[in-house]
Structures are given as C-alpha cells and as structure tokens.
C-alpha cells in the first residue's frame, strides 16, 4: 500500500520535472524553428533554403552533425545565418563527445552567440578576438601547473573583440564562470542548456540520463546585443575526438516591455570581469529525513500534482487554439 503510494508520488514528481525541461520552465516561451535543428536534418546545407551552414570538415549523417571526427588537425563549424532578433532566449543542445582516446583526447567544442558567423580560427575552430558569447566545452587540460579544476570543464567568455583566448591557460583569465562536467564518452544522452534572460546567463547540464537540468553556473549583468548569430565549432590538433551536435532547440523567452522597446542592437558585449574560481561543492546528500520533512514533502507533492493537473489542462486547452505557434 505504502510502496504504491510512494511510487505514484515519484511518478508525479518525475512528470513535473519533465514538464519543466520541455518548456524551459518559462510559460511564455516558444520554439523558434529557424534557430533549431533536429533529425531528419535538411538534405542540403549551405543553400539559400537552409538556416544553417556548415564550414570546414563538418560532416552530416542521418544521426548527427559531426564538427570533427576522431582524427588529427580537423576544424569544423555549424552556423545559423538568421540573426537573433529577440533579446531573451534559451537554447538546448544535445551533443556527444566521444572517441578512441582513453587518456589523451581533445580539444572540445564551443557554442557561440557571435557577431560574425561562419569564420574559422584558433579558438575551438572559431576566430580569436571575437565579439559575443562563447560557451566552451573544454575536454583537454592544457594548463600543466597546479590546477584548480578538473576537465572536462564548461566555461563562459564574453568578448568585445579585445580579449585573446589563451589555450595554454585553458582561458582561465578570461573566463566569466565555469563548472566541471563529465560530459565526454557517456552512454547517456548529454545536453547543455544556455539561458539568457534579463541580462542573466545561466548554463545547465543534463548528462546523467536523469532528464533533470543541473545548474552549472549563473551570472548576472551580462550584456549582449540582439542580431548576433548562433554557432558551433570544434577543432582537433595532435589530440582528437568526435564532436557531434545531435539537436538544437531554441526558445524565445518572455521579455519585459522595457527590454522589448529598448534598442539592443548596438550593445557592446560586456560582463562582470572574470571572478576567481569558485570551489567545487557537491550537492548535499539527502540525509536525516525527519518524519516532519517527509510530511511536508508529501504535502508539497500533492500540491505540485494539483498544480500540474490544472496547468496541463490550461496548457493543452490553450494549445488547441495556438497550435500554429508550436512546431
Ligand atoms: C572591451 O573590453 C575590454 C576588456 O574587458 C575593456 O577594457 C574595454 O573598455 C572594452 N571596450 C569597449 C569599447 O567597451
Ligand atoms: Ca583546453
């Protein structure tokens, strides 16, 4: 009897979490098709019909878009060519980094929101001194000195064209924030979410096959203009790996009236200067569950259940009338 009840509660909880993931936890959000990419991929890229262009060694199969294969000295890119006209967005990227290397592999890939699409260069296959945002998924530790974090490492960098990305230091001096994330060579699906809303940049991962976003970092006062471009790039050198993009889902988020009417096109990318590394702390382990806590948890779950039921009713009801907005 009890176990059934608990199983039912867990089911409800997992449904709730799935809902959160699907909508990016933003009720006013909807997916932008021209900034998304999914299987089956367009049969022809780099034509006037396609929203996405491939550069360098990028290869498309029916299963993935391979920025680099697991061989030396490859450079690849995948660039969207429709500028992003809305100020607040969230992007979910399903990717896979894998290869035959057990100890030595690299270098990783980068996700861009940048002024100049379709260029190649030394920073994970894109140009140095770029304008915009880089989310760097670094799998190889170049920094030989005493290290304050392990790899793979996810970090963000904001650039107005003046900063150099220093590979030899893994970009430590220009990094805005970062976290360790064991996203390479996993059997589970690996996803990263980048949210930019009200000048707050949040990066989360879902790499453990739990279908839950785990926050990697969040930074406020990040200023990014509209009309930049989304892109992905990767490079291999002496070390190599497969760097695959499997799908991209981009959502326009609800925007305040003030931000909507502001001219955001000429903003110079800007963010609080790089902070010292935050010490890595593990999530607190669930210990010492008192009866009172369990009681409140059950009450909470019942409330969540009610809210999800009511929310789902309105959601699907509304969906009937607004089907055109969803893809
Ligand atoms: C560009 O960024 C650098 C370093 O963060 C800063 O010193 C400089 O003032 C910025 N330039 C502009 C035009 O904002
Ligand atoms: Ca590196």
UniProtKB/TrEMBL annotation:
<feature type="signal peptide">
    <location>
        <begin position="1"/>
        <end position="20"/>
    </location>
</feature>
<feature type="region of interest" description="Disordered">
    <location>
        <begin position="256"/>
        <end position="284"/>
    </location>
</feature>
<keyword id="KW-0430">Lectin</keyword>
<feature type="transmembrane region" description="Helical">
    <location>
        <begin position="294"/>
        <end position="316"/>
    </location>
</feature>
<dbReference type="InterPro" id="IPR005052">
    <property type="entry name" value="Lectin_leg"/>
</dbReference>
<keyword id="KW-0732">Signal</keyword>
<dbReference type="GO" id="GO:0005537">
    <property type="term" value="F:D-mannose binding"/>
</dbReference>
<dbReference type="InterPro" id="IPR013320">
    <property type="entry name" value="ConA-like_dom_sf"/>
</dbReference>
<feature type="domain" description="L-type lectin-like">
    <location>
        <begin position="29"/>
        <end position="253"/>
    </location>
</feature>
<protein>
    <recommendedName>
        <fullName>L-type lectin-like domain-containing protein</fullName>
    </recommendedName>
</protein>
<keyword id="KW-0472">Membrane</keyword>
<dbReference type="GO" id="GO:0005789">
    <property type="term" value="C:endoplasmic reticulum membrane"/>
</dbReference>
<keyword id="KW-0479">Metal-binding</keyword>
<keyword id="KW-1133">Transmembrane helix</keyword>
<keyword id="KW-1015">Disulfide bond</keyword>
<dbReference type="InterPro" id="IPR051136">
    <property type="entry name" value="Intracellular_Lectin-GPT"/>
</dbReference>
<keyword id="KW-0812">Transmembrane</keyword>
<keyword id="KW-0333">Golgi apparatus</keyword>
<dbReference type="GO" id="GO:0006888">
    <property type="term" value="P:endoplasmic reticulum to Golgi vesicle-mediated transport"/>
</dbReference>
<dbReference type="Pfam" id="PF03388">
    <property type="entry name" value="Lectin_leg-like"/>
</dbReference>
<dbReference type="GO" id="GO:0030134">
    <property type="term" value="C:COPII-coated ER to Golgi transport vesicle"/>
</dbReference>
<dbReference type="GO" id="GO:0005793">
    <property type="term" value="C:endoplasmic reticulum-Golgi intermediate compartment"/>
</dbReference>
<feature type="compositionally biased region" description="Basic and acidic residues">
    <location>
        <begin position="275"/>
        <end position="284"/>
    </location>
</feature>
<dbReference type="GO" id="GO:0046872">
    <property type="term" value="F:metal ion binding"/>
</dbReference>
<keyword id="KW-0325">Glycoprotein</keyword>
<dbReference type="GO" id="GO:0000139">
    <property type="term" value="C:Golgi membrane"/>
</dbReference>
């Amino acid at each position: 009897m009890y176990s059934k009840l608990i199983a039912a509660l867990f089911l409800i909880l997992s449904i709730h979490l799935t809902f959160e993931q699907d909508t990016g936890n933003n009720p006013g959000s909807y997916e932008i098709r021209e900034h998304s990419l999914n299987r089956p991929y367009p049969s022809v890229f780099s034509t006037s019909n396609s929203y996405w262009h491939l550069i360098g060694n990028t290869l498309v199969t029916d299963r993935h878009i391979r920025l680099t294969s697991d061989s030396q000295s490859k450079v690849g890119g995948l660039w969207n060519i429709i500028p992003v006209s809305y100020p607040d967005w969230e992007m979910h990227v399903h990717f896979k980094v894998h290869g035959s290397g057990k100890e030595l592999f690299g270098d990783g890939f980068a996700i861009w929101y940048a002024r100049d699409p379709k260029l190649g260069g030394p920073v994970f296959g894109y140009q140095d001194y770029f304008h915009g945002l880089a989310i760097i998924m670094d799998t190889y530790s170049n920094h030989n000195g005493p290290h304050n974090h392990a790899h793979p490492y996810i970090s963000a960098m904001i650039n107005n064209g003046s900063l150099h990305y220093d590979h030899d230091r893994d970009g430590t001096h220009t990094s805005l924030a970062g976290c360790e994330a064991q996203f390479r060579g996993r059997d589970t699906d690996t996803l990263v979410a980048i949210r930019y809303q009200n000048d707050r940049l949040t990066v989360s991962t879902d790499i453990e096959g739990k279908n839950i976003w785990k926050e990697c970092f969040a930074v406020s006062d990040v200023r990014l203009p509209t009309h930049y471009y989304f892109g992905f790039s990767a490079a291999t050198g002496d070390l190599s790996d497969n760097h695959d993009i499997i799908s991209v889902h981009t959502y326009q988020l609800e925007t305040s009236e003030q931000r909507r009417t502001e001219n955001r096109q000429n903003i110079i990318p800007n963010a609080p200067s790089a902070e010292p590394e935050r010490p890595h702390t593990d999530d607190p382990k669930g210990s010492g569950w008192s009866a009172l806590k369990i009681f409140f948890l059950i009450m909470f779950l019942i409330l969540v259940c009610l809210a999800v039921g009511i929310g789902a009713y309105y959601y699907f009801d509304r969906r009937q009338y607004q089907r055109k907005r969803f893809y």
